[in-house]
Amino acid sequence: MKQITRKGLEKDLVDQLERNGSLGKYYLDLVRDYLELWDTKNALLADIKGRGVTVKYNNGGGQAGIKKNESVEQLLKVNKQMLCILDYLALKPSCQVGDDTDEEM
Q: Sorted alphabetically, which InterPro entries does this protein's record hold (predicted)?
């Protein structure tokens, strides 16, 4: 499976907009928003992978324990917003997104 790159993802989404006849500044701005959310999603996934779904805390006042990693909840919200943008633009992610390997994120 090819690695999805930011540049490849952007090219795929813009190509789809062109094929749909929906290319314009407003739509390109939404694609940029989608890509920013994609970056955020990847950062949240990295945090969850690194720290896990639960994290230790110590508030310095004698209270310590384990709490849920807030990145999990944020990831769900970011994914939902990404899907809303794709739905609004009537776009579907392509299987050919990773063709451009010069940039990984």
A: Phage_term_ssu_P27
